[in-house]
Amino acid sequence: MTPFDADAAKYDEDTFHPFVAEQLIDGLEPQPQLLVDVAAGTGAAAFAALRLGPAAVLAVDLSPAMIEIARRKAADLDPDGRITWQVGSAVPLPLGDGEADAVVCASALHFLGPRALTDWRRVLRPGGRLAFSMVTAQRFKPSGDYPYPRDLRVPGTVAEAAALATDAGFRSATARQVTLDQGDRVRQVFAVFAEA
Ligand SMILES: C[S@@+](CC[C@H](N)C(=O)[O-])C[C@H]1O[C@@H](n2cnc3c(N)ncnc32)[C@H](O)[C@@H]1O
Questions:
Q1: Model confidence over 115-158: pLDDT tens digits?
Q2: Is pLDDT of 83 > 90?
Q3: Is the CB of 91 inside a 6 Å radius of any atom of ligand 1?
Q4: From ligand 1's centre to the CA of 61, what distance in Å?
């Protein structure tokens, strides 16, 4: 049982996660052969990515409960079965060097740390596209319920967010703030886009 399994049943009640995932997918090129959704949770980014027309999507998450919910939704949202759901650690990804055309990671890099970025650079083919979100230093409130990597870097500016990708060997990195006003709560993260 991972600490994330306890969140699974109510996870889809939070509209912020699909909102962020949609923003990331908007920044990717259409028709990748293989798109990877890293730490996919209940599949927000993997399902959103289907509109890009990928040949295949690999969605990996540590939490069996999250993946179980994603699989149930897939009956309606992925009738062609283009998404492969895999339970396990997403670092390293179960792929060879240069096998992926696109990597997306929504709302999870703060659990994975910089080694995930190095691994994404490894699995992406030259010119492959990366899109990820990252919590902002201003809003990050670590909880004792979850494990965080010791070398976690939490950016405070768009430049620091883009540098996460550049420092891992990506080029053409850009970052912007993504904000959702939920009435009682304003949510904000950085969205980062880069090329391998
Ligand atoms: C906040 S959720 C984000 C889920 C999804 N990407 C989304 O946008 O809704 C964080 C997810 O990271 C997953 N996770 C944490 N550490 C992981 C690891 N090492 N490998 C794979 N998944 C991991 C958790 O199981 C959880 O589903």
A1: 999 999 999 999 999 999 999 999 998 888 898 999 999 999 99
A2: yes
A3: yes
A4: 6
Helical residues (DSSP H) of 37-177, grouped into ranges: 44-49, 64-77, 109-112, 114-123, 158-166
134 in contact with ligand 1, CB cutoff 6 A: no
What per-residue confidence (pLDDT) applies to 125? 98
CA separation, residue 124 to residues 4, 53, 64, 79 (Å): 27, 18, 26, 27
CATH number at residue 32: 3.40.50.150
Quote the pLDDT of residue 173: 98
Looking only at the bridges linking them, the beta strands covering 83-87 and 124-135 are unpaired
Protein residue closest via CA to atom 8 of ligand 1 = 106
Task: For residue 59, give the DSSP letter.
Answer: E
Is residue 101 lining ligand 1, measured as CB closer than 6 Å? Answer: no
Q: How many domains does the chain have?
A: 1
Of 58, 66, 69, residue with least CA distance to 93: 58
Residue 114 has pLDDT above 90, yes or no: yes
* The pTM of the whole model exceeds 0.85: yes
Helix H or strand E encompassing 18: helix 16-26
**Domain containing 49: what range?**
5-195
